[in-house]
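Entry:
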Amino acid sequence: MIKRFSSLFAGHIDLGDMGTDATPANERRYSDEQLAGIFGKTEALAKCMDKLGYHALWFAEHHFQHEGYEVIPNIPMLAVHLSHITDNLRYGCGFNITPMWHPLRLAEDFAVADHLTDGRCIFGVGRGYHTREVETLGGELIDKDANREMFEEQVDILFKAFNNQSFSHKGKYYTLPPDVPYRGYQLKELSLVPRPKNLPVECYQPVVSATDRGLDFMMKYDIKGIIGGGSALLLNSSISAFHEAHLRAGKESQLGTDLCLGISFHLADSKEQAIKEARPFYEEHAKMFGPLGFLGKLKPEQVEAIGKRGGIPNSGIPTLEDACDNGAWYCGPPEGFLEFLAELNSRYPGLEDVNVQSAMGTPEKIMVEQLEAFGTEVMPKMRMAEAAE
């Protein structure tokens, strides 16, 4: 049953105007001072969550977003800072996009963070979905097959480096080490210095397409999954596919085992009031993520409509009401959220981790208020239920 509650913050600044009648996504641009304000926002969220006993605060790695939506480029570095101003909260890399890294630089950065946070930084890997950042930083994304091949080889290297005192690797994209002379001998092996403090490394990856190949690769390294955002629209099929991958690998599993589910939420006295308050944030989410495939497959005219001021209402894209109906969102009073989570417990008996998160665009003040409301009115009662169980 659900034991731990966390939150995902993709890294948006306080945008100012929000919703369908506000500035279109591609027209947003902010000053360096406004963009750097994200770090004060992460501190406010972390301190609130640490005080209330949340398990982890997850961040997303992204680059070059002058639009203000996802502006955290280095999660391990941020985790080190936040661990020094909080006591227990963990910080999740949700996710380090490996095609944008040299795998050994990523392994080193995480290992350093693992030592400096005393194990409070959670590792995570992903393939990416922004062409602007992945292709700019030397990775493959437009070529999906190359993206998958590169990602799998990089993860192979990461775990070789984590799990061995010394290692070598020869693949399609990397030969490590190069066969070169070094200080009187021919180089044949490398050692990660330092290796992570806590081995084996706990690792997470997003479950989106949920193909057999992708899930079987996760099983190879005992990688856990996170389902959230747009992939929550495929909640049932993804959870079933993940469970089946466990069984193919000969692992004991129930529906929900080794998964974390991400649920966007907004609490208010009634469902109607919550939807009214959250609608501008949902619409900002749609403006940002709809063209990237997070609202399902959209027609070109729908993508065009989303990109215009006032274009969402008649575009036919899923509404906030639709998101609530399919379980990607919860809007309503705290007692209703308890029922929602109890239903998750019933349907997915192996599920132990849930992310509750505010939508893209939600201002800092409201995000803190929502985390406080969930942490005081929902989370303690769920823990009481767990204790009774």
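The radius of gyration is 21 Å.
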